[in-house]
User: Fold these one by one.
Assistant:
Number 1:
Amino acid sequence: PEEVPAPSTSDKESTSDDSKAAAGVQRLTDDVVVPVRGIQRIMVKSMEASLSIPHFNLMEEYDMTQMADFRNELKAVAETRDIRLSYMPILIKATSLALFRFPGLNGHINADATEVTQKASHNISVAMDTPRGLLVPVIKDVQNKSILEVAQDLVRLQELGKNNKLGEKELSGATFTLSNIGAIGGTYASPVIPSPTLVIGAIGKIQTLPRFRDERDPDAGVYPAKMMNISWAADHRVVDGATMARFSNQLKQYIESPSSMVSDLH
Ligand code: CAO
């Protein structure tokens, strides 16, 4: 094996080592074998199960400019009730509203692909980056909850995740999945459908980009739009591309025009 230099004891060098450690820099002095255990072992199994699903991908950009104002107004209301409101609860609720028009996307497929169960509950799971790794806890019955109730559930699950307390109760029963990878970084993704559900959407980072005020009239000028991409993956054995595109259009309408979303809230 490579000879490892003895650690320096000089003050100057140890300060530099400390600052590298603080910056997350790790220079391995030898190869390290890392056993795949625990949550990662479960990830191996679930990803292998997902491999048997023929994935259809569709990517679309949504203009969040109006949604940003809507969220700021709602955030102020949420703060008076001690609730933290990111974009996620609004996206989750909008997804549930769109699923009312596309029940075939919310459910499970059986093992031999002879039956799809369309679920009455919109149990939307959210991919979470936790100290134990990727976990996907579920917000149950989104169809019966307000945006602020969804926000409370999300924060509760995030806290459980941070404290390694997410269990079977929180991690089971998903009917549809959203993954906000943009919270960390990245604009597009090719997400993997958690078997036996049918659809996952990966949310990209919201970016300020120039867009035409009126697509039919380029002379009307451009404005600084807040753009967000969503990358969908659907089980192409039972979900066709046209259905996925129509669902995405419906969600896009709710996101781009929050008043259309509010008018469909019930
Ligand atoms: N673009 C821009 N800003 C974003 C954003 C995005 N896509 N997503 C979140 N933000 C903002 C939030 O609005 C918040 O800012 P404010 O204070 O102004 O509200 C801030 O970033 C922090 O958000 P958050 O991460 O605490 O909360 P969230 O509800 O948006 O997301 C969660 C929660 C759990 C989805 C997220 O923390 C997380 O873990 N994401 C990673 C998911 C992941 O790993 N996916 C990959 C799966 S495959 O391996």
Number 2:
Amino acid sequence: PPDVEQLGRATWTFLHTTAAYYPERPTPVQRSNMLSLLRSLPILYPCSWCASHLEENIKDHPPDVSGRLALSRWLCERHNDVNERLGKPRFDCAKTDERWKDGPAD
Ligand code: FAD
């Protein structure tokens, strides 16, 4: 079975970075592809208990693919839900761009 921690770090890196560079005004095609990407995770993610937690979480909190800031915020909150469940500290969602896009100020 895969290393769930390494898989998690790699997946969060991919998802947060992709959200950080998602357009502020996505085209309908970009929106529908982002929605497909997110909706496929509960079906394809190779950690079955992670996938089923995510499926339940997405039912309560449908993805917001309307633009970069909304998507980044939605994803940060979903990651915080996992952090909370695992007893890890919550991340300050105001720092999402600093962590995943811009880097620290000077
Ligand atoms: P990670 O949680 O992997 O975070 C990587 C980096 O992201 C952090 O160092 C920090 O800089 C940044 N970060 C942290 N929180 C946020 C946030 N809210 N927003 C933006 N950036 C942030 N593991 C399990 O054991 N059980 C599960 O059920 C489970 N479900 C998962 C579901 C999904 C969809 C994914 C992608 C992963 C899941 N994992 C699960 C893995 C788990 O979330 C961690 O990736 C893993 O435990 C490694 O944690 P870490 O402390 O190295 O940092």
